[in-house]
Amino acid sequence: MAKLSRRAIKELVKSHFKTRITDSGADKIAAILEKEAERISAFAVQNAKRSKRTKITKEDIEKYVIKKGS
Fold first, then answer.
1. Global pTM?
2. Concatenated DSSP letters for 5-21?
């Protein structure tokens, strides 16, 4: 699986919150985001299969967000 880079997380935190984050903090956020991306992907794959598609669409992801909000 692809890993989110520590640098990307640090830049994200700095640009949105104007603060710095430790390497271990960035690594922890990356791990959490990767786990959530796995859940989203699994949901989207199942949703695409139910619709007899082999490609995940933006709508599949949006359905996850709507479901999660319920």
1. 0.81
2. -HHHHHHHHHHHHS---
